[in-house]
Amino acid sequence: MKIAIIGASGFVGEKIVDEALSRNHIVEAIFRRNPIVKRNNLTLHKMTIFDEEIFENVIKDVDLIISAYNPGYYHVDQKNRYMDAYKVIFSLCKKLNKRIIVVIGATSLIQYDGEFVKNGLVYPKPWLKALEGPDLVYDTYKDDKSLNVTFVSPAVELIDGVRTTHYAYGTNHLVYDKNFESRVSVQDLAHAILNEAENPKYTGSRFTIAYQE
Description:
Largest sheet: 8 strands, mixed
Number of domains: 1
CATH topology: Rossmann fold
Order of helices and strands: EHEEHEHEHHEEEEHE
CATH class: Alpha Beta
Number of helices: 6
CATH superfamily: NAD(P)-binding Rossmann-like Domain
Radius of gyration: 16 Å
Structural class: alpha/beta
Number of strands: 10
């Protein structure tokens, strides 16, 4: 499969690239900042998605787009930047009839007490501000039937750990372990995303993952 990965040099995107290459997919890596190690089956595109003509040319022949887009936690206007970015991304997905998997945050998931994560847990203020963007994107596009989209929300605590492949799935509610903690490694998140890429089960909806042991 030929996969375009947006935000390919970020915390999440980098691991998605690694996972996709480990499964012998061809990757078109779209990024702006951090360097990416050159490897077989990997083409690097250091660019901005807001150059729509170039962006369209990169994605026009791919089988799937995976977006881990993030303008940065300290962007001066994260919320609107997210919306502007996904207007571009989703518009081209519709135009080119592309399937897309979109990584958003955990703040719009529901806790065991019925409260949204963003209303019940304490995040650093810059994180909460930054996550307003993905929440708005999800709320705006979750019911758009003209999009072939799957949204992915990680656990509350997303760590740089190891790839265990032992995690549980949920949809709109947080998944907890026996200590009522919600956590998963970014490596396992990438594993779940590539599983969905290869065997779609959540098209038109959302899934989340976390450890239960």
